[in-house]
Specification:
The protein has about 120 residues and is of the alpha+beta class. The protein has one domain (about 5-120): Alpha-Beta Complex (Aspartate Aminotransferase, domain 1). It is built from four helices and five strands; from the N terminus they run H-H-H-E-E-E-E-E-H. The chain has helices at about 5, 10-15, 20-35, 105-120, and strands spanning about 40-45, 50, 55-60, 65-70, 95-100. It has a five-stranded antiparallel beta sheet with strand order 1-2-3-4-5. Helix 3 (about 20-35) crosses helix 4. The model has no long low-confidence stretch (mean pLDDT about 95). Pfam families: DUF5655 (PF18899).
Amino acid sequence: MADHIRKIKEVDQFISDLPEDLQNITKALRNLILNSSPKLKEEFKWSMPNYSYKGFVCYLQTAKTHVNLGFHKGNALQDKDSNHLLQGTGKTMRYIRIKQMEDIQPEVFTSLIQEAMRLNENE
């Protein structure tokens, strides 16, 4: 399934309203997420892009100076996070803060996204 078909207009609009530097980071992360698996579904919930497969997998949350790649079950990913990128102290959610394009680590992020999908398969 082609990526452009999986992208929804609510997320297109969300991204187009961001400042340019955050737009670039968010677009890059969105493509990375969608490329990590054809099974991921893009949704717009809680005023931000969310990606689901058998439940919520990850989300993109923007702030003034950064974008968070968040994981709904990030606490269960911590043992797979060998680079110690996951932050947060919530009950289950964790995130990786991206302040510039150079912070994006495609292989690392892709493996965490795929691992998060596996967590949903095992429920």
